[in-house]
Amino acid sequence: SNQPLATEFSVSGTVISTSWNAPALATDRIAGSADASATVFFLPVIDDDAPPSLQAYLQRAGGFTLYGGGGGSRTDYPTQSLDRVSSTFGRVGFDLFGYFGPHQTLYGSVGFAVRATSYDIPNTQSAIELPIALSLGVRWHTLRIRLSWHIDPTRSLSPAGTSPSFDVPFWGTVGLHVFGIVGRKLALTAEGYVLDGGGSAEGGAELWLARRFGIGLTAVGGHQTLQDARTEDWVGAIAELTGWLTARFAVQVAYEPQWFRFSGHESLTFSGSDHRVTFGILVRPL
Question: What pTM does this model have?
Answer without folding.
Answer: 0.90
